[in-house]
Design brief:
about 50% helix, 2-enoyl-CoA Hydratase, Chain A, domain 1, 6-stranded mixed beta sheet, 11 helices, about 260 residues, 3-stranded mixed beta sheet, alpha/beta
Length: about 260
């Protein structure tokens, strides 16, 4: 099994893999130690060598993530090469988030700007508060998006709204972000981390194999016709019914008891 020793930004809290993507250092800009360590841990979860049943993305500071460290961009000897390296590192992380079959929850306090907003869009469930604000932030420094935002955002809000948000570098408040589907829901500002952890723990106790099937179906739906998706749903639900998770869920329902999904998945 993979050990997390020496990974300062990543830890297991029970069955929840907690990844700190930003810290109070450098104004809660994206922390690439956290990104790189998160990639390593997520790849281990996907490979079955790290026993996590959900993932929690968190910022340690006033913000979830205020975006890239613009002062570091300015100080780089070769800005193009430096940003290329950072983007590739971030994109390894986004690919690892996309590949992992357990639910990914984001605790979005304060600002989620630039890459921070991209990571919100990449998450399965995102919890914000009344003071949460999101912003692409790329046009303000003359950059184009990274972190998958040009792919995820149109799929969340539609292509026309994505154009408006990206081109105008819109600041999106918490209520509007929920209305658009970028955030899942809001809680009190002082409850965001606690509620996100509660959701992650609840998902970690749930039917992991079913969650994996749901994520696969959703991820592949855009490339299929309705008829093809119906065939995929048939194959998926029949496999679930024959597997230990489905058997336990149905048996628990019939026996009027709480299902225990912790074994056999």
């Amino acid at each position: 099994m993979t050990s997390l020793d020496g990974l300062s930004h990543v830890r297991l809290e029970g069955d929840v893999l907690r990844i700190a993507i930003a810290t109070a250092d450098n104004g809660t800009s994206l922390d690439f130690d956290g990104v790189s360590q998160g990639t390593t841990a997520l790849q281990a979860v996907a490979a079955g060598t790290l026993a996590a049943r959900s993932v929690l993305l968190i910022g340690e500071g006033a913000n979830f993530c205020a975006g890239g460290n613009v002062r570091a961009f300015a100080a780089a000897e070769n800005r193009g090469e430096f940003v290329d390296y950072l983007a590739r590192t971030l994109h390894d992380f986004v690919r690892a988030i996309d590949a992992v079959e357990v639910p990914v929850v984001a605790a979005v306090q304060g600002w989620a700007a630039g890459a921070g907003m991209s990571l919100v869009c990449a998450s399965d469930v995102s919890i914000g508060g009344p003071s949460t604000k999101l912003r692409p932030a790329y046009p303000s420094i003359g950059y184009t998006p990274d972190g998958g935002m040009s792919w995820t955002l149109p799929r969340i809000v539609g292509i026309a709204k994505a154009r408006e948000i990206l081109l105008t570098d819109a600041i999106i408040g918490g209520d509007e972000a929920v209305r658009l589907g970028i955030l899942s829901r809001l809680v009190g500002d002082d409850e965001i981390r606690e509620e996100a952890l509660r959701v992650a723990r609840t998902l970690a106790a749930g039917p992991t194999a079913a969650y994996a099937g749901i994520k696969r179906l959703l991820a592949q739906s855009g490339q299929r016709s309705l008829s093809e998706q119906l065939d995929a749903e048939t194959a998926s639900i029949s496999a679930a019914a024959a597997g230990p998770t489905g058997r336990e869920g149905v048996d628990a329902f019939v026996e009027k008891r709480r299902a225990d999904f912790s074994a056999g998945q």
